[in-house]
Each structure stands twice: as structure tokens, then as C-alpha cells.
UniProtKB/TrEMBL annotation:
Residues 167-503 form the Man1/Src1-like C-terminal domain. Residues 112-124 have a biased composition (Pro residues). One of its GO terms (molecular function) is chromatin binding. InterPro entries: HeH/LEM_domain, Heh2/Src1, Man1/Src1-like_C, MAN1_winged_helix_dom. Residues 49-129, 508-530 are annotated as: Disordered. This is Inner nuclear membrane protein SRC1. CDD domains: LEM_like. Keywords: Membrane, Nucleus, Phosphoprotein, Transmembrane, Transmembrane helix. It comes from Malassezia restricta (strain ATCC 96810 / NBRC 103918 / CBS 7877) (Seborrheic dermatitis infection agent). The chain crosses the membrane at residues 386-406. Its main location: nucleus. One of its GO terms (biological process) is nuclear membrane organization. It is found in: Nucleus inner membrane. Residues 11-45 form the HeH/LEM domain.
Length: 530
């Protein structure tokens, strides 16, 4: 900046050009036609909070350095030299832009400002100062009265020695204890831990504390001669902890801290689990094949057992599965896994696999069954029907009875309607025949029953249905009091004739011209012979 300004600087006392330079240095953008009041407001708002105070600008005075040599040369301060160059002031008033005439102002001296840093006089050295400094460096930093007595110094030194030897002794005792614990090793399997009597003095208590005893044999372990030989279960293996593999650390910790353990053999357990799943799936697949009639039961299967017809010999199942895993597992490992799987399935999963003994060999069968979807659906439907057979039979009988009854009622209604229709047609024919006979004395009053039957039921070809239907029509017609039944000759043959005996309207013969001719009207004899 062109001038050194602080927070105490009065912005109104600065010139317009100075304010513009300061605002430009701080990145404050103001219009070119802005007046001084706007520049002062922008300075107070944006620049003043960022300015340091006079105490902060001055800073602490540097410490004089201790140097031995020629006296320093006094250099003139550049602050005064720059102040004259920077103390250039411009007028912020333009008399040519003033609207009213003003009196020419008198130039006044600028108010004094606080200098940035007060110049310090140069540091000079004299022979006396150098002599005093040398004498002070040779003197001790403590007084003689502050020195401790000799016996206290000796005691402090012996305390340090005793602590050092005590630490070395503890380290040696610790190393000896770790070595003795390794010599003791594991306690034998089934042996009791050594017991100590209650100590009566300090020596016995110390001996009990520092004398190591054997480490108890781990779970599922077989310990002989202080060593862990093997694990009692085949699905466990001996594993040494991580700290036992570090040589130096293994020698500096007790044996019980890095003792080996019998842990489950996860690899064998995984193989055994996969083999168990394969055995169950193989038996379940054969079970489903036999149920779906896609395979036949074994010829020597124990059929007397509940699931005997779905069983397979153990040797056959083992050979079939061993051929699948012969490349990844050797024979000894497979034999071990097979015995472990058989024991585990028969003991812990009886719902997945069962075993039968038949003809000196063991047969394996699974309750599960793997079948195709179509076979499973068919078996499910058959099982469901057999389970609810009584309910289904009752429903079937009820449905059949209802259908039969409904059909019988419907057929009866239809037959009643047909019988009524045919009877009405017979009555119309008989009335028409009677009216024609009254108007024309040459015609016969009645009509043969067989002719009426064949004419009305000519569309029905079934003789049994025609006979049953005409029986009902004949009953309805003969029950009518206006119809008489008699025997008469018709074309030389004696036949059963129906005659209308009821009232006859005289206009009925006129209707006969438009009505169809009665049966036998063209062949009727001129004179009937009763």
C-alpha cells in the first residue's frame, strides 16, 4: 500500500487517490464516479477490520544478540526516508466541479501519525561488558548451599544400583520360571494337578509362587510325558497359538501362555458336511425315483420295514459317492469321513437318514424324496384325494343327486309342458272334426288314436320315448269329459277312436278351410259303421 494505515487511522483524512489505492489493494471494487463519502464507507466496512493495531504492527523488540567483535555500525532508518516520499497529499476537492463558490482553503500540516517501529539504537560492546560476560559464564549455576550432603549422594547412587540389580534379578527369575514351565509341560491325561499345603512361612509361600507346575491337558487332548500327542476325536487337530511361533517371545513367556490346544478341524468338518449332504441327496433321489415309478426297488430290499422298499445297501451308496470324490480325497481320508458322516447322521439327523440291518448288511434310506415337478404334483393330488376321500365322496354323491334331481324335475316340467301342448292340439283336432261332421253328415265324428299319435309325434324317433309321452297325453285326453273313447272300424280295421262330445260352434266348419285337414279325412269312409 502507498501508506501505512492502522485501525486508528481516520479514513476521512486520507485523499481520494489514497483511498482508491487502498481499496484496490484489498480487492474492493468501487465505481469510478464514486465520491469520497462512498470510498470512506467502503474503507470502514471492508478494510478497517483487516488492519492490524499499532501494537501488533510494531511487534516485540528483538533481543540483543551476544556478539564479540567490532562495534556495530549505526545505520540510518529507512522509515524516515520513505515517509517523505510517501507523504504526498492530493486535494480531494475540485474547484471546477463545485456548484457554489468557495473560499480557497489554506493548506494545513498533516497530523502526526504513530511510526510503524521505533528505531533502536545500535548495540555496542565495551571491554568491561565482555569481561563481565566471560566471568559470568565460568561461575556454577547453583550455589554451594544447595549442594546435598555426601551421604545423601551415596545413598541415591546405591539406590539406583539396587534398583538396577533388582530388575536384572527379576528378569533372571522370570526366565528361569519360563524354562521350568517348559520342562514341566502338560499334565498326563486323567492325572490330578499337584497340590501344595497351606504355606506357614514366607519361604514356603515364595517357593509355592515361584515353583511352576504342569499345565492341565487341554480338552479333547491326549497328553503323555508332558507333551500333547494327539486329540481324542478325529474331527479335532492340535494347533499351536500364534505366540508359540515367535522364537524369542516363545522363550520369554510361561508354557501355559503358549500351550497347544485341540481345536475343531474345520477342513475335515467342511468335507464331512459336503459328504453328508451328498449321501442324503443320493438316497432322497432314489426314494423319489421309486415313488414316481421311474426306478425299481432293490431286489434284496427289506420290504418288511416301513421304508424298506426305498432303501439301498450301504456299500452301494459308498461306492457311488467314492467314485465322485476319488480325485480330491484319498481313500484313507474318505474312509475316515465316511465313518464320521454315518455316525453323525444316524445320531443327530434321524429325520434325514435311517439304517436297517437285513441279511448281515446295513441298508440306508432317507425320509426325504426328490421328485420331478409333474410327479410331485400328481402324488400330491393323489395323497390329497385319499386323505379326504370320505369328504370328497360325500360331496360327489350330493352333487350327483342334486344334478339327477334337477334334471328329473326339469325333464318333468318339459314333459308336462309337451303333454299339455299335445293334448291341446288333440282337443282342437277333435273339435274341428266334430264341427265338420255336424256340418257335413258324411264325415266321421271321431279320429283314430294311432293316427293322432303318429301325426303329433312324428319328430320323435325313439319308440320308448314316444310310448311314454303318448301315455301321458292319452291320460290327459281320456280324463276330459268332452272326449269319448270307443272302438270303430276305420278303413276296414277296428281301431280306438276319440270323439268330441262337447259343444261345437257352427262356425267351426268355416274355419276348417284354413285349418289343416284331420288325419284320415281324405280316406274317411262315407258312412262309418260302429
Amino acid at each position: 500500500m502507498p501508506l501505512d494505515v492502522t485501525r486508528e487511522t481516520d479514513a476521512s483524512s486520507l485523499r481520494v487517490a489514497t483511498l482508491r489505492v487502498i481499496l484496490q489493494d484489498y480487492g474492493i471494487v468501487v465505481p469510478g464516479h464514486a465520491r469520497k463519502s462512498a470510498l470512506v464507507a467502503a474503507f470502514n466496512e471492508h478494510v478497517r477490520p483487516k488492519l492490524p493495531s499499532p501494537s501488533q504492527r510494531a511487534g516485540p523488540k528483538p533481543e540483543p544478540s551476544l556478539r564479540i567483535g567490532t562495534p556495530g555500525i549505526r545505520r540510518p532508518s529507512t522509515a524516515n526516508a520513505c515517509s517523505a516520499a510517501n507523504d504526498i497529499r492530493f486535494s480531494d476537492e475540485n474547484p471546477f466541479q463545485s456548484s457554489t463558490p468557495r473560499k480557497k482553503r489554506l493548506s494545513q500540516a498533516a497530523p502526526p501519525t504513530t511510526p510503524v517501529a521505533t528505531p533502536t539504537p545500535p548495540y555496542t560492546r565495551s571491554p568491561d561488558k565482555v569481561r563481565r560476560m566471560a566471568q559470568s559464564s565460568d561461575r556454577p549455576q547453583w550455589r554451594a548451599a544447595q549442594l546435598a550432603p555426601v551421604w545423601q549422594q551415596i545413598r541415591a547412587r546405591w539406590q539406583e544400583t539396587l534398583v538396577r540389580w533388582a530388575l536384572w534379578l527379576c528378569l533372571l527369575v522370570w526366565i528361569w520360571y519360563c524354562w521350568q514351565s517348559r520342562l514341566e509341560g502338560f499334565c498326563s491325561t486323567g492325572a490330578d494337578l499337584p497340590s501344595w499345603d497351606r504355606p506357614t512361612n514366607v519361604w514356603q509361600a515364595l517357593q509355592k509362587t515361584l515353583t511352576p507346575v504342569c499345565t492341565p491337558c487341554p480338552d479333547h487332548g491326549i497328553c503323555v510325558g508332558g507333551r500333547l500327542d494327539a486329540c481324542d476325536a478325529s474331527d479335532y487337530k492340535v494347533e499351536e497359538p500364534m505366540q508359540g511361533h515367535i522364537p524369542l517371545l516363545a522363550q520369554l513367556i510361561p508354557f501355559s501362555w503358549r500351550a497347544s490346544q485341540c481345536v475343531p478341524d474345520t477342513h475335515k468338518l467342511l468335507l464331512a458336511s459336503e459328504l453328508a449332504d451328498a449321501v442324503v441327496d443320493y438316497l432322497a433321489h432314489f426314494h423319489g425315483q421309486v415313488r414316481c415309478k421311474l426306478a425299481l426297488p432293490h431286489g434284496q430290499a427289506p420290504l418288511q420295514e416301513p421304508l424298506g422298499r426305498y432303501a439301498l445297501p450301504e456299500r452301494q451308496v459308498r461306492d457311488a459317492l467314492e467314485t465322485r470324490t476319488i480325485e480330491s480325497v484319498d481313500a484313507a481320508t474318505f474312509d475316515f469321513l465316511w465313518h464320521m458322516v454315518m455316525d453323525g447322521l444316524l445320531e443327530h439327523a434321524p429325520g434325514d437318514m435311517q439304517a436297517y440291518t437285513h441279511q448281515t448288511q446295513r441298508w440306508l434310506v432317507s425320509r426325504r424324496k426328490i421328485m420331478p415337478f409333474s410327479c410331485r404334483l400328481r402324488m400330491y393330488v393323489l395323497d390329497w384325494v385319499w386323505r379326504y376321500r370320505m369328504v370328497l365322496l360325500t360331496i360327489l354323491v350330493a352333487v350327483v343327486s342334486t344334478c339327477a334331481l334337477s334334471r328329473s324335475v326339469q325333464r318333468r316340467r318339459v314333459r308336462r309342458h309337451v303333454v299339455a301342448t299335445h293334448a291341446q292340439v288333440v282337443f282342437e283336432r277333435l273339435k274341428l272334426q266334430a264341427a265338420q261332421a255336424v256340418s257335413d253328415g258324411t264325415l266321421v265324428r271321431g279320429l283314430p288314436v294311432t293316427h293322432l299319435r303318429d301325426q303329433l309325434l312324428q319328430a320323435e324317433l325313439n319308440p320308448r320315448v314316444r310310448r311314454q309321452l303318448w301315455q301321458h297325453v292319452a291320460k290327459v285326453v281320456e280324463r276330459n269329459a268332452n272326449v269319448r273313447t270307443r272302438q270303430a272300424q276305420w278303413h276296414g280295421e277296428w281301431q280306438r277312436i276319440w270323439e268330441w262330445m262337447g259343444p261345437v260352434h257352427l262356425d267351426e266348419p268355416a274355419m276348417s278351410r284354413t285349418a289343416p285337414s284331420s288325419p284320415g279325412q281324405e280316406d274317411a269312409p262315407p258312412t262309418p259303421q260302429p
